[in-house]
Specification:
InterPro entries: GPCR_Rhodpsn, GPCR_Rhodpsn_7TM, Olfact_rcpt, Olfactory_GPCR
Main location: membrane
CATH superfamily: Rhodopsin 7-helix transmembrane proteins
Number of strands: 3
Order of helices and strands: EHHEHHHEH
Number of domains: 1
CATH class: Mainly Alpha
Pfam families: 7tm_4
Function: Putative odorant or sperm cell receptor.
Structural class: mainly alpha
Number of helices: 6
Strand order of the largest sheet: 2-1-3
Protein name: Olfactory receptor 10H2-like
Shape: flat
Largest sheet: 3 strands, mixed
């Protein structure tokens, strides 16, 4: 029950990298920027090659293209904010921005997991049922599997994020992490008796 002396958390302070010396933060920025750019440079050409080449319009490559897109979007949900926090002196984020980052992180992460599961099923069908592969993994069915992976990731991301942000946050608003995710936030949930 909310008392008279009650304050809720409206923003969080991310202190993941603040324990390091200030002169190391630009080096971390360059390191994480290089890793982010390598992720983009590794996945975007894969997507472009599969998209433009008609000979690669097969189930395995469709799944690989969707996997590359989900990986690019997953890193895009986390890394730019982390890079900005490395160079900034102001590390606060509003509750709504935290919720949106968490939603996109869960959505793209779960979509990535669903796509990996479908890719495993695709290889199972190709190895164990090679003569029926074209029937079991038709282009239409593969497109549906990819669409259901994205829909499932979005629904699960929405369910998990809304379940967490439906509750009330209290206590100190400092998060000892470098991005906003469920375990660091659950420490700040109000204890209900």
């Amino acid at each position: 029950m909310l008392g008279l002396n009650y304050t809720s958390v409206s923003e969080f302070i991310l202190i993941g990298f603040s324990t390091f010396r200030k002169h190391l933060l630009p080096a971390f920025f360059l390191l994480f920027l290089r890793m982010y750019l390598f992720t983009l440079l590794g996945n975007l050409p894969i997507t472009a090659a599969i998209w433009t080449s008609a000979t690669l319009h097969m189930p395995m490559y469709l799944f690989l293209c969707a996997l590359s897109i989900s990986e690019v979007l997953y890193t895009f949900a986390i890394i730019p904010r982390m890079l900005a926090d490395l160079l900034s002196t102001h590390h606060t984020i509003s509750l709504m921005a935290c919720a949106s980052q968490m939603f996109f992180t869960f959505t793209f992460g779960l979509t990535h997991s669903f796509l990996l599961t479908i890719m495993g099923y695709d290889r199972y069908v190709a190895i164990c049922h090679p003569l029926r592969y074209n029937v079991l993994m038709s282009p239409r069915d593969c497109a549906w599997l990819v669409a259901w992976s994205w829909a499932g990731g979005s629904v699960m991301g929405l369910v998990v994020t809304s379940a967490i942000f439906y509750l009330t946050f209290c206590g100190p608003n400092m998060i000892h992490h470098f991005f906003y995710h469920m375990p660091p936030l659950t420490a700040h949930l109000e204890q209900v008796a």
